[in-house]
Structures are given as C-alpha cells and as structure tokens.
Amino acid sequence: MTEFKAQTLGDLPGEEARGENTLDRNEVDRFSRIAAEWWDANGKFRPLHQLAPARLGFIRDQLQHHFCSGSAAPPSRLRPLAGLSVLDIGCGGGLVAEPLCRMGARVTGIDPSIDTIETARAHSSPQGLAIDYRVARAEDLVAAGETFDAVTCLEVLEHIPDPAAFIALASRLVRPGGVMIVSTINRTMKSYALAIVAAEYVLGWLPRGTHQWDRFITPDEMQQHLNASGLAVVRTEGVVYDPLRDVWSRSDTDTDVNYMMAATKP
After folding, report:
1. What are the structural domains of the chain?
2. Contact call for residues 67 and 104 (beta carbons, < 8 A)
3. How far apart are the first and last CA of the chain?
4. What integer pLDDT is reported at residue 204 of this predicted model?
5. In 3-state terms, what secondary structure has residue 179?
6. What's the pTM?
7. What DSSP string describes 37-75?
8. DSSP labels for 106-136?
9. How confident is the model at residue 70 (pLDDT cuts 50, 70, 90)?
10. Burial level of 4, CB count in 10 A (0-12/13-18/19+)?
11. I need a labelling partner for 132 at 20 to 30 A (CA). Which of 40, 173, 190, 245 fits?
C-alpha cells in the first residue's frame, strides 16, 4: 500500500487553501459514527448496496467505451478495466472500490474519515484486494500532482457545500484524455418526497438528516459545473427504483431523483 502523508489546508497552494468549501466536517463526522456499518447490506447503507449494480454497470460501460473502443485487443470479460488507474473520491467503506479492483483497475480510494478508511481496509485486506486506501482529500492529491485515467465521485456531491468548487478541484485529478463519473440526486419535488421524506422518515432506509434538499444538484447545473472545469459531458442516465421488485435500474430518460453523468477531459 502506498504511503501517503495528507497535508493540512494551510500547506495547499492557491485556491485549494480555502478548503472548507469542499468539505462539510459535520457530514464527515456523521458518516464516521456509522463507519462500522458500511458492509451491512440491510443496515444504514442499504440504499447504496442496492444502487451498486446500476452504478457499477454505468462505470464499466463508460470506461470500456472510452478507453477500449476500436482496440485491437478487446478487454477480458472478467477484467474489463485492466490497466486503468481509477480514483474513487469519498470511497466510504469500499462498495465501489472493491468491484472496480476485481474488474482489473488499479484503484485508489480516498475519504476524510479515518474510521471509514479503517473499515474499508479491514474488509478488502482479507480478500487480497490491492486497493490504495488513504485518509485524504482531493486537495491532497492535487497538491501532490497526481492524475488518474478515471475519477469517480458517487453520492458525495450532495454533501458538499460548494459542488462547483469541488468539481473544479476533482477535474484536476483526471489526466488528459481521461474520464470523470459522478452520481448524485436531482433537486426536484419528487426527490424531496422520495430521497428525504420516504427514505429517511417513512421507510427509515437512511438516518434522518442524511440529506439536505437545497444541496441536491440538477443535471443542468452538474453539466455547467463539469463544462466550466474543462470537461465534456458524454452520457447521462437516471437510476430509478421499482418498489414492486425492490430493485434499482438504469434509465435513459428518468433523472428525476438519482442520476449519473460521465464527462471526458480533452
């Protein structure tokens, strides 16, 4: 595992020194308190476990399409992301990092919570998964001059005070010719009813207070943030819930609540 020394905000150059626009310490503390529950598929992170197939399918498809289209040697079906370096920002307990590693990617997962990273390491280590987990923020990697083939930021932006500043920062971690993939929650009355009222207060899928509706981001706003950071949006899909089958699936048209977006850097 790569040794990494996180820098303090005061050590960071230029715009990143503001720092707190890209992190809400209360949110970090909230998730730290339940860090031990990341891998309980029926616990507080149940919605993320259910979202996993749709999110991972989107990531796999976008990265394969971008990096492997026209390749003389098609990737292995078991390791379709072999050779790609992927950074998962806000990796949590590793729900995305682990399957990306199994798909062959060289994965780095960062999270500002020590408790969360300890949970991620404890779960991946016995399985022999070589994931570079770090207690770090995007600012730290930018300051170190690191870049990756792909950067994922999933269900994180709705917890950030200034998502535009965060996307501008994270885009610097995408190498030229690389891809950024984000997923978040749309700001609609439907998302308020389902992602907050139903999920937190009626069904109890999430702890109350997990989400703030005014931090949800519309697809148009997301595209503006990505474009302003020098990225070109190439694909947007929604993720919809079927209560009769209790499954989440990808949608080409319905982005009313959850959605995913892929953007490339020239």
Report:
1. 17-66+77-186+215-264 (3.40.50.150)
2. no
3. 31
4. 67
5. strand
6. 0.88
7. GTT-TTSTTHHHHHHHHHHHHHHHHHHHHHHHTT-SSPP
8. EEEEEES-HHHHHHHHHHHGGGT---EEEE-
9. low
10. middle
11. 40
Q: Mean pLDDT lowest for which of 42-46, 64-68, 80-84, 212-216?
A: 212-216
Residue with tokens 């819930």: 241
Helix axes 25-33, 114-124, angle to 10 degrees: 40
The Cα 44–Cα 35 span in angstroms is: 10
Residue with tokens 């022999």: 128
Q: By three-state DSSP, how is residue 99 classified?
A: helix
- Six-digit token pair at 64? 């394969």
User: Are the C-beta atoms of 218 and 238 separated by less than 8 Å?
Assistant: no
CA dihedral 236, 239, 101, 7 (to 10 degrees): 70
Count of CB atoms within 10 A of residue 235's CB? 17
